[in-house]
Amino acid sequence: MASPARADSSAPPFVARLERLRRVVGEQGLSHLLITSPKDVGYLTGFLSGDSYLLLTPLTHKAARPVLISDFRYQEELEPVKPLVDVVIRTTPMIEALADALGIAGGGGPAAGAAGEPAGKMGIQAEHMTVALKAALGRKLGAKRLADTQGLVSRLRAIKDEAEIALIRKACRIQEQSLEAVLPTVKVGQTEADVAAAIEAEMKRRGSSEPGFQTIVASGPASSLPHYRPGSKKIAAGKPLLIDWGAVHRGYHSDMTRVFCFAGSGGKWPAKIAEIYGVVLEAHELAAKAIAPGKTSTEIDAIARGHIAQAGFAECFGHGLGHGIGLDAHEEPRLSNMLGRTRLEAGMVVTIEPGIYLPGVGGVRLEDDYAVTSEKGRGAVRLSSMPKDMGWASL
Fold first, then answer.
1. How far is it, in rounded angstroms, from Cα 100 to Cα 106?
2. What phi, psi does 306 have (nearest 5°)?
3. Selection from 337, 179, 159, 366 nearest residue 257 by Cα
């Protein structure tokens, strides 16, 4: 699979990211950190193709350069990252290649580490590594050498730099232009799957490497299912049509949701859907206006959740208000009443997506992407620009 981006990996953003992480590795008292998440490898080096491990040491370690272990399929593709890391193209199983990189003897017992440094604890990404892989590493390297870590890279990824925010903004433009191209072709009687396929094709034509997730096109009562999968169900007049879609531009995601209704030619918005549309839109705007550095994730969630509860629909909004977005469609921070409190910081990019879902009737969810900013007088900048009002959404 081709890499979504072939960045100049010697550029300052990647150097700075690696240095920040290596500083954390030292603070954790680790001799090494093994990065096995493909998205994290991409964040740190610009190489997004996957099937590669990145091995880091603290900044105080004599072996200053990280080691990226990959295979022949990516040999040419890895040329741009060589100014940044030592690339090892393995000819043995990954664990064997990792053991060689660590300077471990074949039996797995502790020996001299890389560049002659003493062997120590190697941090692993507990939130990503499988139990089977950890067991295999333990057998090869010695189980006592492995130390679980969580969130070391995701906490860095939560704060986007200007270049990352620009890529997310571009992904938003791609997805908006794609839906704008498809909407005039959507007709009563068309299947949900046809509409989803058309949106994804338009995003591909405009530069999206892939859909950000399985596109949701939910017609009628199916719109009350938050993660509905489109099928052969046909679009009907006078029924809600929920579309949740996202693009990927150079590895970075966007995510939006809109609800439409064929209200012309004798059709009209169902009264209950029209009612909850107004409530959801107000909840969205209230929460978006409250986003600012220093506010907490639970505080922003409570604003939208409280407004929906006051309207009498507390039991109909059961998911979190939003989530971080970047190299993953869902990442830190999480805006939710069910998770721990996170203080928002400038550079975080989050979705705001309140919803009300009425089984047997339908649902409304309205979602946009926002970058938290420290600019005077602005707590957040909306990266998406498509309208959300009901008049615009009447087809």
1. 8
2. -65, -40
3. 366
Q: Give the Cα separation of 140 and 104 in Å (integer).
A: 9
Return the structure tokens found at 335.
């805006």
Residue type, 223: S
- Does residue 300 lie within any of the structural domains? yes
Give the integer Cα–Cα distance in Å for 95 and 218.
44
**Are the C-beta atoms of 244 and 365 separated by less than 8 Å?**
yes
Query: For 9, what's the count of Cα atoms within 13 Å in the CB-facing half-sphere?
Result: 24
Q: 315: which 2 tokens? A: 């039991």
Predicted confidence (pLDDT) per residue in 270-319, tens digit:
999 999 999 999 999 999 999 999 999 999 999 999 999 999 999 999 99
3-class secondary-structure state, position 244: strand
The verdict on 65 and 145 lying in the same domain is: yes
Q: Are residues 150 and 276 in the same domain?
A: no
Indicate the residue among 156, 181, 212 that finishes a domain.
156
**What pLDDT band is residue 50 in, cutting at 50, 70 and 90?**
confident
Q: Are residues 114 and 209 in the same domain?
A: no
196 phi and psi angles, rounded to 5 deg? -60, -45
Q: What is the side-by-side strand order in the sheet with 86-89?
A: 86-89, 67-70, 53-56, 32-35, 122-125, 146-149
With a CB cutoff of 8 Å and minimum separation 6, the contacts of 187 are 235
Number of domains making up the chain: 2
Is there a domain that residue 388 lies in?
no
Residues of the domain holding 244? 162-382
Give domain status of residue 116, yes or no.
yes
The reported pLDDT for the residue numbered 377 is: 76
- Do 382 and 370 form a contact (C-beta atoms < 8 A)? yes
167: enclosing H helix or E strand: helix 162-182
For position 288, which CATH number holds?
A: 3.90.230.10
Q: What is the largest CA-CA distance in the chain?
A: 79
How many C-alpha atoms does 193 have within 13 Å on its Cβ side? Answer: 3
By CB neighbour count within 10 A (0-12 exposed, 13-18 middle, 19+ buried), where does 174 fall? buried
Q: Report which residue type is found at 158.
A: A
Pick the closest to residue 277 from 241, 246, 303, 301 (CA basis): 241
Q: Is residue 264 part of a domain?
A: yes
C-alpha dihedral sign at 160, 164, 166, 171: negative
Contact 259, 366 (CB under 8 A): yes
pTM here?
0.90
Helix (H) or strand (E) holding 44: helix 38-45
